[in-house]
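Course exercise 7: structure representation. Students receive a sequence record and must write out the corresponding structure in token form. The form below is the worked example handed out in class, using Paraneoplastic antigen Ma1 homolog (426 residues). Read each field label carefully; the graders check that inputs and outputs are placed in the correct fields and that the protein name is recorded exactly as given.

STUDENT ID: A-19
EXERCISE PROTEIN: Paraneoplastic antigen Ma1 homolog
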Amino acid sequence: MEVKTVHLELESGLREWCQGESLDEDHVVLVLVPKGTEVAQIEETMETVKALGRVRVRGRMYNKKVDRLMVLCECRERVDPTKVPTDVQHVSTGISWPVIMSARSSATEGDAPESFEALFHTAPPTSSPESIIRAMGDVLTKMDKPSGENSSYRRLRMFSGTLPTPAGEETLEHWLEQARLMVEESDCSDKEKRRRLMECLRGPALAVIKAIRTAEADVSPSKCLDAIECAFDTAESGEDLYFKFRLMQQEKHEKLSDFLKRVEQSLTKVVRKDGIPTSRVDAARVEQLMRGAIHSDLMLVQLKLRERKQNPPNFLELLTEIRAEEEYAAARVKLSASVHRVKANNDMDSHQTDIQSLKAEIKELKSMVDAMKTKPLKPVDHDKESFPSHQSPKIESCENAEIVALKKQVQRLQKKVSSKTAKDYD
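STUDENT ANSWER:
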């Protein structure tokens, strides 16, 4: 009874919703979908019913009783209950979505679809192991929420094919890389992949895809990307790309790991254009790394790549080894710089000590010179002294010579201080 009551409430709500949105009940259906389902997935799934024609979502509302989203869908064709099923299956997961039609369109008013009744189905109360296992199976079956891969995705950046690349757009190489990753890794349908590609194209690029779809409506997403690459990329053959790959060289101050990444990007293009067989990718990568890494000879010797040419590592293994060697080399340089800085500081301290000592000696000598200049001469008593008068000039000349010697010593010490100070600044 509860199932039928809820179904009648949904039919009544559908009529009121149509009046509020000014929609024709004969061209509207209500579908119950899990929470988190994207609008694009709903429209794509409902358009699998050919009797509905083109379908567009006009509103969404959560219903607590059924724990689902009620989605109001407008159809191009008139809803015929004899042609429209009471439930549809999601294109990716295969989960059934109940479809509610208005009482005016449905010939069996109040009848609920089986998938709708399954939402209220509960296992009979029993404690046997078989019933518990059966109940667990029913619970797992009802856990039909789509994964994050199907419900959301990171939108690609815009690409128009205009040169130079306008602000806010991606270059062809980077855009193709992201687009191919989406096409290869996404679990959604080809139609959804085409929609994602076309929503980020404009200008000449969008015109190319429209021209292809005019000739082939169900063209695959991979062919769309091939057409974009053919229209806007260089017309070089696989042999031309392989020749450019063999001419690659490491730039000055470029890390070996960065050079390896450039080599890998070029090698990927060569493989895509059939310029080299896939079986020779690892060997070609190692050969070009040894050939073009002209600024990392020592690191190549440490990696021992020549001895490993018969069994070359793949890209990830090689990148890991190179990064480890680069970090080890950076640590050695840092340690060497630290040791040199400590030694320089010690030398600086010894120079400062010598300078302070010399300055102290200069100060002491200057004080001695000043003292001798200001020292009063003792009066000479000719009566008491028996020295002859001609010895007085000799005594005075000796004192002057001592002052001159002290001044010269002060000058020499000052020169030593100046030379040590100059060395410290150097």
